Amino acid sequence: MPTYDFVCPKCNHRFEKFQPMSAAPLKKCPKCGKTGVKRLIGGGAGLIFKGTGFYITDYKKKGQGGKDGGGSSEPKPAAKPAKGGSD
Question: What is the CB neighbour count within 10 angstroms for residue 29?
Fold first, then answer.
């Protein structure tokens, strides 16, 4: 549930109210009791992810080859042709 900011134009009282998004905005000031309270538009808070598990690279094991696997950057030697008869 979000926290909304309100201001009373009569007494200039600013306050916050924690309420569901489906709830109607407040109309009465808790300080002076008069109607006309306005809900302010806030910038909101950004999401903060802490810990691991939010990116695909977090699931890769170190030491695996591949572009994102964290393997060594040196090229592997080419495979030697098998000894034996020719086609």
Answer: 20
